[in-house]
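The data are passed on as follows:
___
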Amino acid sequence: MDETLDLRVQKTYESLITALFELLQERPLEKITVNELCKKARIRRPTFYKHFNDKYDFFKFAIHTLQKKQILRVDEVAYDKNPLDYFLTWFQVMMKAVNEYQKVLLSLHIDSPILFLSDFLGNYMEEQIAKRWQHFVDEGKLTADNMDFNIQIMLGMFKQIGLWWLKNQEKISQKEVVEKMAQVLSVFFSKRA
């Protein structure tokens, strides 16, 4: 959430986001109306439409807000560490978000979790990962060779493993998935230093 916003606007956004994720646990986005979203968030429809074009515009805003929150979590813990620690922390935070929002993900249509994770790992997250990669290049901890390609590899791995775990969590714990990703990232970064 943008801290420079008026406190009333911040509270409106927080209320709407909370209401959206509560409603998504009950039914798909397509079946949620702006009226019920506003009612649950205790805001007026004109207020909603002052900030958003429709529920899909708001959904993208909610995802973007969640992304910023997750990046802040990673940066608080691992910004200046080595690339392996930083990106493993990034993966752990993403997995915690998948776990936290799994009821929402599982309540959506079969393709929606893919779309959710694609949105979650979309342009904003790609830009943030690129900035961190460049930070490590500048520190001499990574090379800039094939940077875009390597970032796409990581985004693809993270998205696919998040989806796979969502479908197989009764067979493998989140901790085990993170341990396996640590092994993969260890090999991945040993080739890029």
Remarks:
- Residues 142 and 191 are 9 Å apart (CA to CA).
- The longest helix spans residues 55-78.
- The chain has a mean pLDDT of 83.
- The chain has ten helices and no strands.
